[in-house]
Amino acid sequence: MFTTIQFALQDRIATLTLRRPEKRNAISQTMLDELGAALEETGQSGARVLVLAAEGTSFCSGIDLGELRNMSSHGEEENRRHGERYAELLRALYELPLPTIAAVQGPAVAGGAGLILVCDFVVAAEEASFGFPEVRVGLVPAIVSAFLVRHVGAKHARDLVLTGRSVPAWEAFRMGLANAVVPAAELAPRVGRLCEELVANSPEALRSAKALLRSYEVESLSRDLARGMEINATMRQTADYAEGVRSFLERRKPRWAEGRE
Questions:
Q1: Which residues make Cβ contacts (< 8 Å) with residue 65, sequence separation at least 6?
Q2: How buried is residue 28: exposed, middle or buried, by Cβ count under 10 Å (0-12/13-18/19+)?
Q3: How far apart are CA 113 and CA 210, in angstroms?
Q4: Helices 218-235 & 76-94 angle (0-180, nearest 10)
Q5: CA geometry: angle at 118 spanning 219 and 201, to 5°?
Q6: Is residue 134 annotated as a catalytic residue, yes or no?
Q7: For a Cys staple, 79 with which of 56, 123, 164, 236, CB 3.0–4.6 Å?
Q8: Which of 88, 127, 134, 197 is catalytic?
Q9: Going by C-beta distance under 8 Å and a sequence separation of 6 or more, which residues neighbour residue 204?
Q10: Which of 117, 90, 98 is nearest to 47 (CA)?
Q11: Can you give the pTM of this predicted structure?
Q12: Angle formed by the axes of helices 218-235 and 145-163, nearest 10°
């Protein structure tokens, strides 16, 4: 049914696995659609917990770079629609009534890091890393920043967003991006034990608890996501964005507008 992800259900635990390891699990248009469909399937499956995982050495490298190149020539309205689709996916994962766990075995970058921000739990292998490098290609992590600030606070968010640097798993843990860091061999067992703990709890109480916690920020989150989508669409029309994507794909340093001949 799916070509870029895998959906599995066993013992009331649903697992969504990103399956583009040759592309570092980059988020294509197809993957966006399939993740949305899989979340709907999860909600109807009778699952009590959702695990988000990935194949290969990378968790997710963000939006597919080939598609980023194409988007640089799109109009603002089309870029806005793409941003809205990504924001809708994050919102759907964030609002899923089930407890959600991200099992992060490798780098989670940009839009890929956004996926882990909306999960209830993040269990990371020691080899994992987290980064929001959009400023290095003339963009802003505008949509995910609504969730990032809520996780790590303003000071850490400025560090990650303005430098674009990646942080290793233990630093991410100290910032609040991860709930636990374990050796790679312990990742699956640790996630499994957490699933068992959650499944043993009252499903109705878990649903109510998640709804209650979301209610504390629903208005501010909607406002912040709308602002982020607007900035995201605007930035994709800039010369810096076109140059940033082009230089990244050509593996050279960008020549920003103020420094070009």
A1: 26, 245, 248, 249
A2: middle
A3: 21
A4: 150
A5: 100
A6: yes
A7: 236
A8: 134
A9: none
A10: 98
A11: 0.93
A12: 40
3-state secondary structure the chain: CCCCEEEEEECCEEEEEECCHHHCCCECHHHHHHHHHHHHHHHHCCCCEEEEEECCCCCECCECHHHHHHHCCCCHHHHHHHHHHHHHHHHHHHCCCCCEEEEECCEEECHHHHHHHCCCEEEEECCCEEECCHHHHCCCCCCCHHHHHHHHHHHHHHHHHHHCCEEEHHHHHHHCCCCEEECHHHHHHHHHHHHHHHHCCCHHHHHHHHHHHHHCCHHHHHHHHHHHHHHHHHHCCCHHHHHHHHHHHCCCCCCCHHHCC
At 135, list the tokens.
């400023």
Q: Is the four-CA dihedral 13, 16, 22, 24 of positive or negative sign?
A: negative
Ordered per-residue pLDDT tens for the chain, 261 residues: 899 999 999 999 999 999 999 999 999 999 999 999 999 999 899 999 999 999 999 999 998 877 766 655 566 677 677 788 899 999 999 999 999 999 999 999 999 999 999 999 999 999 999 999 999 989 999 999 999 999 999 999 999 999 999 999 999 999 999 999 999 999 999 999 999 999 999 999 999 999 999 999 888 999 999 999 889 888 888 889 888 888 888 889 999 987 554
Token digits for 2? 């799916």
Choose among 159, 138, 140: nearest CA to 228: 140
